[in-house]
Specification:
This protein is an alpha/beta fold. The chain contains 13 helices and 4 strands. The protein has a 4-stranded mixed β-sheet with strand order 1-2-4-3.
Length: 295
């Protein structure tokens, strides 16, 4: 049975609303879930969608990403219900099949992460231990935790969809992520500032984790494209993929456990290497607007 849709629409045409709702309800019909209700907020203009999300985030007092012009669709559960917010303006810039894939990605999040506990994540013990060794602030550790959780949850969403026959569109979604390109300029800015560098590399887990469930023998080309995408990271390209591969091998069906697993391996492979450098305490922890990614 599909969950009850609590619909909010501003400015979007009837045909666009009907299409979005059809994609959402069809997806729920094909995925196992126990949702009773889900909020669906459809805005014609991206600016209205962003203002709505910003207000909800502030009302809930939840730390979240800084929403910007790259926003297409977003899921959260800050106020107790799974909530999907969409920008028709942005979705209409994509090919129809890709736009539908973006919508389904958020539906998968609502199935897997439709409770507030998936958005108020305690700092994992491996990151707590970094605080003791490196003198990091709780705010910085929360940033690391948020970015790690985003990456892990994207892995889980892709895995759910791919395992329920949403294969072609999730491959299109993966190709889209890779085609958006790596933020080489930002990497060059942060790579000499250990705390900012560590945050950037943690944010860079998102794309490879999201794509990881698709990397089977039928999609070898995707592995090559991912390697090319991460090429600007130099030595960290391989380390980042080791974090993803080793984490995925031991992931379970428990999101909290998976976040802790990823944090443990990420600490061992990358964070300790960067943050325990003798000069790291004297460097700025500038985040440089790293959080342009959707959950």
């Amino acid at each position: 049975m599909n969950p009850r849709i609590l619909l909010k629409v501003k400015g979007a045409s009837k045909s666009d609303v009907e299409h979005i709702l059809q994609v959402i309800t069809d997806c729920y019909a094909n995925l196992p879930h126990n949702l009773d209700a889900v909020e669906v907020n459809i805005f014609q203009n991206t600016s209205d969608a962003l203002s709505f999300l910003s207000a909800q985030s502030k009302a809930a007092g939840v730390k979240s990403s800084s929403f910007d012009e790259d926003f297409y669709a977003y899921h959260h559960a800050w106020l107790g219900l799974p909530s999907i917010t969409l920008s028709v303006e942005k979705l209409n810039t994509l090919p129809p099949e890709l736009a539908d894939a973006c919508i389904r990605h958020e539906v998968a999040h609502s199935v897997l992460h439709g409770e507030i506990r998936y958005y108020v994540i305690p700092i994992p013990p491996p990151y707590r231990r970094l605080k003791e060794v490196c003198g990091l602030s709780d705010e910085y550790l929360l940033d690391l935790t948020y970015l790690t959780a985003v990456a892990v949850k994207d892995y889980e969403a892709t895995k759910l969809l791919y395992s329920h026959n949403y294969r072609v569109d999730q491959l299109q979604y993966a190709e889209h992520l890779l085609e958006e390109g790596f933020e080489t300029t930002l990497w060059k800015i942060v790579e000499h500032h250990p705390q900012a560098k560590a945050l950037f590399l943690t944010s860079s887990l998102k794309v490879p984790f999201c794509i990881k469930p698709l990397l089977d023998q039928q999609n070898i080309h995707l592995q090559k494209k991912l390697e090319s995408y991460l090429q600007p990271l130099g030595e960290y390209r391989q380390l980042l993929m080791e974090v993803v591969d080793e984490s995925a091998e031991i992931f379970t069906d428990d999101t909290y456990s998976n976040i802790q697993t990823a944090a443990e391996i990420h600490c061992k492979k990358i964070l300790k290497r960067i943050l325990t450098q003798p000069t790291q305490r004297n460097n700025s922890s500038r985040t440089l607007n790293l959080y342009k990614i959707n959950s």
